Amino acid sequence: MQSMVNKPTKRLLLKMLAVLFFLAPTCLAQSPTFSGSTNIFKPASTPAKSILGVSMFVLVITGVIFVVVAGLLTYAVVKFRKRKGDDSREPAQVYGSNQVETAWTVIPVLIVVVLFMATARVIANVQNATPPNALHVTVIGHQFWWEYRYPGSKVVTANELHVPAGTPTELQLLSADTDHSFWVPRLAGKTDLIPNHPNVMWIDPKEPGLYLGQCAQYCGTQHAKMLLRVYVQPRAEFEQWIQQQSQPAQSSNAASEGQHIFEATACVNCHAVTGTSAQGRFGPDLTHLMSRETLAAGIVANNHENLRSWIQDPSRFKPGSLMPAMQLNEHDLDAVTAYLETLR
Fold this sequence. Notes:
By secondary structure, this protein is α+β, with helices and mostly antiparallel strands. The protein folds into 2 domains: 37-69 and 99-223, Sandwich (Immunoglobulin-like); 253-340, Immunoglobulin-like. The chain is 39% helix and 17% strand. The strands form 3 sheets. It has a 5-stranded mixed sheet. Strands 4-10-9-6-7 form a 5-stranded mixed sheet. α2 (46-79) runs antiparallel to α3 (98-128) and α5 packs across α8.
């Protein structure tokens, strides 16, 4: 059957794919929301290092198997290839060799047992060895964002997790709706958040920096844009952040109109702002909204233009998100944006 796509069109499509392939890493590197690394070969935490160790062990074992099998196959293909003058008779068949049958039964079983024991040991060490001096954080997965609660400090934030460097952090994983999966490749493996079934994981990053991750379990329309940002800070800087996040929202007379509009709309049914009448729990806590670098679970930078567009119509960024467009007129939209920009 003749192809329905002509050759010039095929060449154009191939060129476009090649351009996208080479430009994509550059675009991600320049985007403020993707400034970080998700390289699994650069672990920055004890669980991630353990996972990398067992992964390399499995890779070596399977690599040796591949080399042996590919080598034998290549040898057989070359040595027993068809030559001129062959009589085309079937070669002698070997049946009932106890040595051969024992070898191809025992050796694979031993390999599987070794891989199973090595993997089970790492899983047990990672899951059951939470250090006793760990900081405790509750992580709640929502469609399609992350909520973080710091027990004992009354700090509640969203999408950007802050932890101290050099100190273990235990994460209690909960889900408010469907299955999610917490995965920051450089810090730990994937752990699911399952409704009515709390899970626990821990990390102990050594170096300050930004570590990126993502929900690794399909959870709905915007699963791919449910990003993770973990800020690892020096202990003193982390304590300062906790202190700042513990404070109530700062009121401003200049933004009083926007606050009144905010509190008079359905915004307060979902969002909370400490010290105001807004006490919703379905959406992110906005008390210190402008202290966050990103909006919408890490997909866009947190600036005036993006914030205004998000309030006006969230579907521009995340079609299928559960936040409705509030249908505000231009004046009210500007007033509410101005108010939210005071929440630092």
